[in-house]
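hey so i finally got around to running the thing on that chain from the lab meeting. sorry it took forever, my laptop kept dying and i had to restart like 3 times. anyway pasting the input first so we r on the same page abt which one it is
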Amino acid sequence: MFREWGFLISEMVVLILFVALLGFFVGWLIWGRWSSMNVDTGEADRLRRELDACKAKHFEKDARIAALGAEASASVSAAHEADVTSDGVLDYDGDGILQGENEGLKPATLDGARDGVADDLKQIKGIGPKMEKMCNALGLYHFDQIAAWTPDEEAWVNANLEGFKGRMIRDQWTVQAKLLAAGGETEFSKRAEGGDVY
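ok and heres what got predicted. didnt touch it at all, straight out
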């Protein structure tokens, strides 16, 4: 009986020694290699600086978009307050003159879209497929064109949208176009781009 115990004890001693040697070997592989690795903190610092510069650049853009959004809200409120009705004719630009055919100054227009590619004006609330064709026929193809309109130019466009007079001021095209031209988006443009509108 004791012979069997001796065999088992010798087997256990051999296994314990094997496991210990295996542990030392694995430890040497892990810690030995780790200590010999050269960690380059300069590369990490460079990447961190680039990331911070990128964040700062986008922060400025986001701040500009937020400011334009606030301006849009204020303009919508002001436009609604400026509406004056007289026999169904409105003063959408708030200049005290009721909308007429000869109001304002025609904005700068283009003979065609730049590089043959027009912006999707349907991302502006108030411009559907029919209105987009009408804008293109007037020489308006890009968000930045609409974003640059002066009040006199807005008044001209408003007075010359056949069948849709007053639409441009009511829907605040200029304010929306400023956001879109700056790379921002509106709730409406997100839905239009996703195909949820037209």
